[in-house]
Design brief:
The structure holds 2 protein chains of 2 kinds. Chain A is about 0% helix and about 55% strand. Chain A has no helices and 12 strands. Classes of the chains: A mainly beta, B mainly beta. Chains A and B meet through β6, β10 and β11 of A and β5 of B.
């Protein structure tokens, strides 16, 4: 069965600094991988997805993620964080027609 | 822009009472999901529908939870009786097919508080 691990429960970065959120997955075959963002009290919105091809994928709001099969990782990055990026971020893996989410990483942005 | 509609947004109830949540997916989306999200955790799949049929309800506590999608469009999730541990956000999501290159579209959720 597939699983997703997000090692960091919360991260604090300064506005303008770079960001990297970690995600490790477990799945026997080639996974479909996603990053979603959730603002307080809201549903989840897709940031980006990886299905195949180029291992560096671009998403909305200036985010990107890199798929590394050898490390079973799909880390999310952003070169310069804005205060509006403060939210909860979820990595997800799809396998067997089921999407499994990690526990999430809460991002705090300080001025 | 098409959205997944959920109601109610907030529900406060006492334990042992019955509660129901409603979801209307994006038009044309054949697959519908109910997720439960406990505060501080990621969404956990409760039930998945393909049209009107249940594809996966392995994580649905069937002694108290039920879900239906009678006409393959909107769906209802019911809890009877509610317990304190059911306090959570209940998220509905839909996608066009069972598996495609698209994404899950989420509603804003229904937050349940059981007293």
């Amino acid at each position: 069965a597939q699983s997703v691990t997000q090692p960091d429960i919360h991260i604090t970065v300064s506005e303008g600094a770079s960001l990297e959120l970690r995600c490790n997955y477990s799945y026997g075959a080639t996974p479909y991988l996603f990053w979603y963002v959730q603002s307080p009290g809201q549903g989840l919105q897709l940031l980006l997805k990886y299905f195949s091809g180029d291992t560096l994928v671009q998403g909305i709001k200036g985010f990107e993620a890199e798929f590394k099969r050898s490390q079973s990782s799909f880390n999310l990055r952003k070169p310069s964080v804005h205060w509006s990026d403060a939210a909860e971020y979820f990595c997800a893996v799809e396998g067997g027609f089921k999407t499994i989410f990690g526990a999430g990483t809460r991002l705090f942005v300080k001025a | 822009e098409a959205e997944v509609a959920q109601s109610p947004r907030y529900k406060i109830t006492e334990k042992s009472q019955a509660v129901a949540f409603w979801c209307d997916p994006i038009s044309g989306h054949a697959t519908l999901y109910w997720y439960r999200q406990i505060l501080g955790q990621g969404p956990e799949l409760l039930v998945q529908f393909q049209d009107e049929s249940v594809v996966d309800d392995s994580q649905l506590p069937k002694d108290r939870f039920s879900a239906e999608r009678l006409k393959g469009v909107d769906s209802t999730l019911k809890i009877q009786p509610a317990e304190l541990g059911d306090s959570a956000m209940y998220l509905c999501a839909s996608r066009e097919g069972q598996r495609n290159t698209g994404e899950l579209f989420f509603g804003e959720g229904s937050r349940l508080t059981v007293l």
